[in-house]
Amino acid sequence: MTSNILDNIDLRTLGELLQQARKKCGMTQSDAANIIDVARTTIVAIEKGERRLKATELIKLARAYGRSVSDFVRSRPVIQPFEMQFRAAYQRSEGEELHIEPAIMRLEELCRNYLELEEMMSAPLPQNYPPEYQVTNMPLKATAESIAVAERQRLGLGDGPILRLRDILEQDVGLRIFYLEMPAKYSGVYSYDERLGGCIAINANHPEERRRWSLAHEYLHFLAHRRKAVLEFEGQYQRVPESERLADTFPKYFLMPTSGLFKRFNDMCRTHGKFTPTHLFTLAHYYGVSIEALAYRLEEMELVRAGTWDRLRDRGLKVRKVQKDLGLEDIPQRSDTIPLHYQHLAIEALDQGLITEGRFSDFLNVDRLDARRIAAALREHSSGMMEEASDFDLINMPE
User: Fold this and answer.
1) Is the pLDDT reported for residue 191 higher than 60?
2) In what order do the strands lie in the sheet with 197-203?
3) Whole-structure pTM value
4) Are 30 and 40 in contact (CB under 8 A)?
5) CB atoms inside a 10 Å sphere around CB 207
């Protein structure tokens, strides 16, 4: 039976799964080669999907990795390989490939896992997608603000701050958003697949203000350049294309809408008689953006003098110290790697016996000890939500 399955399985997918399981066990390719009595180069070829495994070899490797054979040969959703999309869109040096390819492959694996869980639980991610905005030959700033206003209205966001940006784009729009470890110069990755929809990875190592900005940037690509794979990193363009300039412009209007910002600025000036650097810090915290981004936005709106940010920077302003001195707490964030819907699908699949504990830990990319801790936390969270719902029903029960 295993032999028949191996005749038809996608070798690239099988290789990826074997590589992930080996690394999670802390084994080298040489260790794996010794287990099935082959050269290390053979393991390299197997993990790249270039050499077909024998049934006996798979059984030995699965046993050594502490896994069942079914974990490697089960049917999985077929999607367009992300790396193929990015290679078609970007010419990257070998050094850049080594830096960013792991993040691209990780995003693809997580998105495939997400879809697998949805199909397993018959719970597809709801997609509240607008039609793709047409932006060709349109004035840049007016277009960016127009799209920002339209999306805020569509999502019922008003003109205030978006405190739960990631949750809104995940749950209200239906994007797949992951926070992944990336080299510092990379800020985000965007991809689109007909089965998966919009998929985004944000650099988990960046501060929350920058992650929110990057997320809004990638959201514009989804709204206006939906089927184009996008990598964002410093210094990638000698001449920035119009699509990137639009994506660079959109976040300031989406995160700091003109009407709301103007009203709050005037309220501060009217209450205190003037607008001070302290107000700059509190307003930036209110909108969840960097001091630099807010200062430039106010300069553009001619609400503060041109060069305000440059003068503050040149004086050696220590942003984090001032924030601490002012008692400004960290911006609300959810920096876990995996979306909440994904996590809840995984725990439901585990509790219904549809996946093993080992597979659950793979879905969450943690070891089994952490998987048990996360499972307990998710169960407690679900239980709390059920109790709240029950209390609500009792309070609103007709007499």
Assistant:
1) yes
2) 176-180, 197-203, 186-193, 230-233
3) 0.80
4) yes
5) 14
